[in-house]
Amino acid sequence: MSAGAAETFAASLSRRVEGLRGGRAFANYMTAREQVVAMKEREAAASGEALRPSDYWREELAGFEYMLDASPLVVEKLRHHTYHLTGLRTYDYRTHAAKARQMVEDKLEALLELGGEDLAVPESPELGGFGFEIDGALWNVDTLKFLECSLALRRGGVLPDLEARRERLVVWEIGGGWGGYAHQFKTLFPNATYMITDLPEVLLFSATYLMTVFPEAHVRFHAAGDDDSALADVEEADFVFAAHTALDTTRPERLDLALNMVSFQEMTAAQVRGYVDHAWRLGSPWLYSLNRDRSHYNEEISSVGAILRERYWTHEVPMLPVSYPQPLPAKWRKRRPKPPPSRYKHMVGWPQMDL
Amino acid sequence: MATDGSLTPRAVFGVPLYNSAGTLPEAIESLLSQTEPRLAVVLVDDCSSDATLELARRYAEHDERVVLRRNDRRLGLVGNWRHAFELAGELFPEAPYFAWASDHDVWHPRWLERVMAELERSPDAVLGYALAERIAAHGDALNLHVRPAYDSRGIEDAAKRLRGAFHGVVAGDAVYGLARVPALRAAGPFRHVVEPDRLLVRSLAVRGHLVQVPETLWFRRVTSEYSGRRQRASFFMGRPPLHGFLPPPLVHAALFTWDLAVRGAARPTVSRAGGVVLAAHYLRLGTAQQFEPPPGKTLAKRRRRGRRWVEARRDRTRRARRAAVKRVRRPARTVRRVAGRLAGRKP
Fold first, then answer.
1. How many angstroms separate the CA of residue B19 from the nearest CA in chain A?
2. Closest chain B residue to the Cα of A340, Cα to Cα
């Protein structure tokens, strides 16, 4: 009897896996994987000191090498595996975590109060999307961070400027992580081309995720060695996934916004300088950064802010008085607590002139 | 004079410069980065002794919207501000808008576009400006309280607008707003008085509406606190005039009387009789503001300040008493010493 039940389970598992293998998400994963492997092969030829990931990131990459050979079951729950990039685990969002839920509810309420009502894009339930269900939508620390970023972009005068433009927007995210902000931005601005530059292994997450969440999207991959003109007609694509080794040829004809969230602080100074300089040379009229001056673990950079100010005039957009992973202090509305000196800063910058 | 065949300036920024090489590039570039391109920037250097002039020259050579002039002699802050306004009028007489810009604050690229749009929408508005964020010398946000936006549109009574300008407007912010040139000229741009910004903004308020865009589009660099002594030293070249030592509201009210009641300069918006009433109003509101702590000061802060004042006073009194005792004792000791000598005792 028990052997029969085990067989049934094995058979049903096998059927399920095969079903998932033939599904859209796994097909997207396989497409992304093929491109990422090709990027890795070309990486060797394009290697250089500035392209070498920081020590911090080399350790991180080693932790999710298994994603290069993921099973359909892993892909089905892709968001559960993004903790390698974000540190957020589904365990913390189970029903017993009342305190964490309260924190998410408080922050969401605070952000909506600050004017984020029309910018709120919750987590998609696709690919194992998780979070606390509030008013029928999923919210977690990441989605709140993205909402705060959109709000900072609005309060920093960037979104009103982008909204006023009639042509299709071209946005470049440096270090797109699992594609969470790309999802939010593309939902808010469907008429936009969203380019992500990242380490190839990380693009595996974002490309699979975004191709699944936006099944109709036109997607393009860009690797080192691709032609300079490969991104000339970039506006025809919805998403472009570019390897960090292809920075030199990542040259869209126009760029409206360059942004980075929580990854400049984990790069080397040379890398940050390279990206900021590239955005400036591409003529990006806006640069947005949510970073600390330096991640505690990263010894290879001294100040993100100082590097940004080499090319862009930046100013801070004051938002909530705490960094995005922390809970709001009680009665924060009555008092404006002094933020700690080492904190995440929402910085908006416009380009310096080349005299 | 058009700097570009196709883009006649709609707004002119008058930028008085003095020894600001450290902050000048960011300030000028923030003006030149405006999304509204129909602008001109008139830089007026007041005989700087650092690299300000050299930097300004580079911008003038690089961007044809920038005009640079250098004063033959130091005019002081008030004189240079006035000169910047006059020069802008001479160079760009067709431009309907003017704004003073400092050599150390920062303008968001959308500032001109947003503020000008508001003024175009409201023909009765004379001055437009945006919410301001205070930044430290190194550029970090100071996270200070930002006042809600003030908008006098809909208030037809000039006295109410004047009261609004006292309580709802930070004159030091508003004076960097975008003004309609005729209204600014009529209000008398930057008089030779202490706190000329307050006088100007309030003079504009009785002439028309003040409009504040509810977006933070201006970053004011805070370097020092307000000081009347510092104003007297930097505003007037050489010795300050006598009225510089009088309470500013008294001087301002006298000028209000002269302008509105005697000259009738704001007619038909304000009659001569109305001018007398407004001047009295100014004196009352200004005096109250001068001697009352600003609304942001809490009771605890007021008490602390009061306690410090009492302690300082007590300390001064104690020192004065000791000095007086010394003064009294010294002759007494001398008398005793002389008397002792006369009596044959050893000193």
1. 20
2. B143
Interface check for A160 against chain B (CB to CB < 8 A): the answer is: yes
Cis omega before residue B96 (within 30°)?
no
A157/B109 CB distance under 8 A: yes
Any CB–CB contact under 8 A between B133 and chain A? yes
pLDDT tens digits, B162-201: 999 999 899 999 999 999 999 999 998 888 888 899 999 9
Rounded to whole angstroms, the Cα distance separating B113 from B91 reads 22
pLDDT tens for each residue of chain A, 355 residues long: 455 556 788 899 999 999 999 999 999 999 999 999 999 888 776 656 556 777 777 888 888 889 999 999 999 999 999 999 998 998 889 878 888 899 899 999 999 998 888 999 999 999 999 999 999 999 999 999 999 999 999 999 999 999 998 899 999 999 999 999 999 999 999 999 999 999 999 999 999 999 999 999 999 999 988 887 778 789 999 999 999 999 989 999 999 999 999 999 988 999 999 999 999 999 999 999 999 987 777 788 889 999 999 999 999 888 888 888 887 876 666 666 666 666 889 999 999 998 7
Chain A closest CA to B251's CA: distance in Å?
Answer: 38
* Domain ranges for chain B: 11-247
Helical H segments across chain B, by residue range: 24-32, 52-62, 76-91, 111-121, 158-167, 171-174, 181-187, 196-207, 228-235, 248-256, 272-291, 299-342
The total of other beta-carbon atoms located within 10 Å of residue A167's CB is 9
Flag if A161 and B35 touch (Cβ within 8 Å): yes
Domains and CATH numbers, chain A: 92-351 (3.40.50.150)
Answer whether A161 sits within 8 Å of B219, measured CB to CB: no
Assess contact for B72 and B180: CB atoms under 8 A: no
Sequence letter at residue A226: D
> Which residues of B are less than 8 Å from A322 in CB distance?
none
Span B11-247: which CATH code? Answer: 3.90.550.10
Scored b (16 or more CB within 10 A) or e, A214-248 reads beeeebbbbbbbbeeebbeebbebbbbbbbbbbbe
Q: Which of A160, A313, A336 sits opposite B29 (nearest CB)?
A: A313
For residue A350, which residues of chain B lie inside 8 Å, CB to CB? Answer: 30, 33, 109
Tokens, residue A52: 């070498």
List the single best residue of B35, B54, B104, B147 to mutate versus A (max A Cβ within 10 A).
B35
For chain B, the residue count is 347
Contact B82, B14 (CB under 8 A): no
- Complex ipTM value: 0.83
